[in-house]
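Lab meeting minutes (informal)
Scribe: AK
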Amino acid sequence: REHYGDGHPTVKRGVADREYAEELLANREHELDDPSATPIRTVVGTDGTPASAPFDEVWLTNAIAESVNREQQLRDAIEQQTEHVNLLSERAVDLAALDEKTGEMRAEAVLVRSRLSVLRMESQAAGRVNIASEAMLPARPARDRRMLMTLMAFMGAFCAGLGAAFMRAFLDPSVRRIDDVPAAAHLPFLGYLPKVHFEADLWNDTSEDLHESMRMIRTALVDRLSPGTCSSVLITSSGAKAGKTSVAMLLARSFADIGKRVLLVDADLRRASLTQRINVGGRIGLVEVLNGSVSADEAVAHSSTPGVDVIPSGTCGPELDSELIANDTFERSLDQWKQSYDVILLDSPPILPVADARILAGKVDGAILTLRASHCRKADVFGAVSLLASAGCKPLGTVLVGAEQILGYSGYGRYSYSASAEVVT
């Protein structure tokens, strides 16, 4: 230290070695003073494995005594801990019992508080209510009304459906049944046509039901026409697609069956459906007669049905003058046709959308109003009848097309019909 000084590394290392030796010395002295702290000495063998060093008798005796002492201390500590655990278990059981009693007391306190509240309210009321006995759940209903309630539900549903059907029938604006026709049109009912699926082929249809229905319409119409003279009949409807063309075709064929000479005029210049269905189009017709291109006789075409002649609509283009039908040419042509035919049937446009039918109605002897079931509205039918009357036309009656209600006689079979056996007076 005198040579190097306190800060030299050699001096510091020497001081550290001395402190470490003093520490080892103190530890050894403590081990010698306290045999229990003396560790088991080990030595290292020649092969490098540790081995127990031999001890003297005194040291071993002291070590055994110390071990016995320490074992006894551990046993005493275990007994103390066991007693402590048992004490805690007993206290836990006591606490659980106290908690249960506390919960019961709280529930009883709530019930007492509720009962006190009820008694307080009853003391302020005019009377007091006591429970005589607790209610008991019965094993079965005292009065089983399930069947009665089921029947009442069915009756209620039936009455509701019946009422709805009645209201629908009462408030329905359409003409659906034969009974609706007189109430809607206030005109004589000539007859009905049953439903058919192929209207485009009605000109060649041989259905017995359809033929008999048209025979009844023709018979009713003949009674309303002037006998001995040619009658011009306008066939119209309140709106489109009401079956007026079908009625005109079938009525013309029915008149031809009894030997009448019939002229069928396609006066619907805006939609010539009659000309297309009889297949006489692509030639001159009513338009050419009205504009003076041809005479009234030149426009007549012969159909496939004997006794029925047809006047097509003619050339109907977008430049067609809608006022052609209002000139005097049509009246002169109609008078000329009456000299050669017994019945003239005019298929006209609907009376409500356009004025053509109203103009034609004032030039003919009478008009038939066709109605399609579930299609024509009662208000439209009433308006069409009013327009026919205002045009000065005689309404001959109505025909219902597509009727579902078929009138017949129970117990009667079908009759064979022969057109040649019928005589019309």
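Next up, CB showed the second protein from the same session:
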Amino acid sequence: MANNKKNPVKIFWTLLIFVLLLAVVASLFWFWLKPSQLSSPDVAAAAYKVSRGDLVVRVAESGNIKALNAADIKSEVEGQTTIISIVEEGTIITPEDVTGGKVLVELDSSEIKERLTQQEITFASAEASFTEAKESYEIQIKQNESDIKAAELKVKFARMDLEKYLGETVVTRLIEVYQQNHAAQIDIASLLQDPNQLGGGAKQSIRELEADIGLKQAELIQAEERLSWTRKLNEKEYVSKDELKSDELNVERRRIDLDKSQTSRQLFQQYDFAKQTEKLFSDYLESLREMERREAEARSRLAQ
């Protein structure tokens, strides 16, 4: 067993010695066969003293160099323009040039100046138009106020005329009925059913007509009584026939006057009162519509 353990060690040392001998023989054989090559200049140049240092790896590759912070300078002039002057190629711009505002490129500004002049003219014209429009606006405001005020006064006066003729109570009721039904037609007959409800000029006219009728009736009664006495006296021949005839004519005259007064009242109620009432009420409604038109026109003109 002890001999078996020592055999591998012997084998290892034997192989190692054999390899070393083989390397020595090969080296001697190499130098022996190539003496000329070892003494050549190329072999001598290839010899270099080894020293410790950094290993530099250089790779040759094609490419483009690009600035890290690049800025494109472009003309902000609209349309096309002509370059009048430009700095020479390769000019180095120093900080002093930047501070001093050195001109690098000069463009033709004649067209821009012309457009600037035109814009200044346009602006001045627009400014003048604005001032004129503003003043017209203020004038229109005052004009609208005057027009609306005049329309309001016309409505007020039209209602006053209506109240003056029919009375405030009747007019208020008529306006309420109109606002509820939106009908401009007035029931004249209902107003004349009770004349005492009327006021103003219409009531005064009816009173005058009624008073005139009453007066004519009293005069007729008086004339008829006188005629009755005259006839009795004539039968007894105390008065002449001429006096009797005169009293008969007087009675007839008084009867005609009464008929005329009654006809005047009928005509007033049927025509004059109805016409005047319709006219004044229509004038009042028209003044309301005109005021609405004035207000609408005022808003329209102000918007313009």
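CB comment: The radius of gyration is 67 Å.
No objections, moving on.
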